[in-house]
Design a protein that fits this description.
Shape: elongated
Structural class: mainly alpha
Order of helices and strands: H
Strand content: under 5%
Number of strands: 0
Helix content: 40-55%
Distance between the termini: 57 Å
Radius of gyration: 20 Å
Number of helices: 1
Length: 50
């Protein structure tokens, strides 16, 4: 197996793992920011945008 074939095989296996992981995300999950704070949902209309 050449280096190119080995690289493509590695990429393919990683894509397969990613597709499997994404397929398991059918149920809703809480969305968080990178800081771990809750994100999404309704905005408090009494607060300003800035």
């Amino acid at each position: 197996m050449t280096l190119t074939e080995a690289t493509l095989a590695r990429i393919e296996s990683k894509l397969d793992a990613l597709i499997d992981a994404l397929a398991g995300e059918d149920e809703e999950q809480d969305i968080t920011t990178l800081d771990g704070d809750a994100a999404g949902g309704e905005r408090d209309q009494t607060e300003g945008l800035g």
